[in-house]
Specification:
This protein has helices spanning about 15-35, 50-55, 60-65, 85-95, 140-155, 175-185, 190-200, 200-205, 210-215, 230-245, 290, 305-315, 335-350, 365-375, 385-390, 410-419; strands at about 40, 45, 70, 75-80, 105-110, 125-135, 160-165, 250, 260-270, 280-285, 300-305, 330, 355, 380, 390-395, 400-405. By secondary structure, it is an alpha+beta fold. It binds histidyl-adenosine monophosphate (HAM). Histidyl-adenosine monophosphate binds near residues 83, 84, 258, 280 and 303.
Length: about 425
Amino acid sequence: MTSFRAPRGTFDLLPPRSEHILAVREGLAAPARRAGYRYVETPALEDTALFVRGVGDSTDVVTKEMYTFTTRGGDSLSLRPEGTAPVVRAALEHALDKGALPAKLWYAGSFYRYERPQAGRYRHFSQVGAEALGTEDPAVDAELVILAADAYAGVGLRGVRLLLNSLGDQRCRPAYRSALQEFLRGLRLDADTRARVERNPLRVLDDKRSEVQEQLHDAPLPGDWLCAECTAHHETVRELLGDAGIAFTDAPSLVRGLDYYTRTTFEFVHDGLGAQSAVGGGGRYDGLSESIGGPSLPGVGWALGVERTLLTLEAEGVELALPRPVDVFAVPVGEKAARVLFGLVTALRRAGVAADIAYGGRGLKGAMKAADRSGAAYAVVVGDRDLADGVAQLKELSTGQQRSVPLADVVDTLREALR
Ligand code: HAM
């Protein structure tokens, strides 16, 4: 024991839960990979200004939740609170916008937000994300929503609901913004929130406080102000989702917590999570590239919370199909047998069979216990008598059935049996 603990709001992942997380991460990424999205990795740290300008300087994520520090060299860096601004930054830095479009990218990794920790809300968490850059085609919005829905279905989640909205674009947003401001100026709000009304009125709609929410029932909604192009875009997305058999609920007040969204926005929610009901979300961000000083590069994407997805799977009682950690466990009795079996497990691994061995000169009983605990299908037991006869005992652990196999045939026999 030590008095050191993982920092508040963070956690260690240990087997077997760590393997559940791995399976969820792989499962969530699988549909996007099947749709031609290619893997991208960006640093855990970025220039603070990337998030201030990209995500928005009046969002909670930027003003309250970033881990920001000055380096020894005097630069302001932040741990990434999200992955979209970094992916767009990387795409521009490496001129993907000049290549084949859309550039379809996926990622998985750690993100950091200084939030008040509670069930399903951490300061360090992981997301699987997908972004399609360089097209305004509404079919790509629909593709991404379908891939996210399929991702949840693929890991076995059932009770997830999709909320869908459109926030309009730079053509229709200004008129909506003015109408919203006019409405908000008539409410009882504290000085900070009133200042927010002037700077970024959409953020006020996302205010979580009940005294604010209860005054917002009659607030104008983005959907009532969409221009013809945005309406047509949204209709196409809705039709394509319908054609694909994706159930969704229109959520006219869904604004999301990041400033870069235009047109399509969506969130996947689950009731098994308590207050933190969003398991994933995303949308279109046609102006993000310009807001970080780039050329026009429309985009759309999502990020799915890995821990929250696992929590909902646990709430639903879904058993994840996990590969066995090892297929074979070697049980040596005596030093000579330990030498021989050490060589044998190396040969098994090289032949593609997952194998482990009891270390530390444990007796037969202790080593058999380790074999049972390992989850292996077979134990290979060898003692001095077996060595003299040139054989090993292959024990099928589920049935207890045992047979003697020549040492030279063990690898082939096991490979065959495990096929
Ligand atoms: P977001 O809605 O902020 O979107 O986060 C996506 C998901 O990450 C959430 O639905 C949730 O499952 C998970 N998540 C967020 N914060 C926490 C936390 N503190 N603890 C545990 N899980 C959390 C984005 O990040 C956008 N970049 C999504 C996107 C991609 N939009 C377009 N492209």
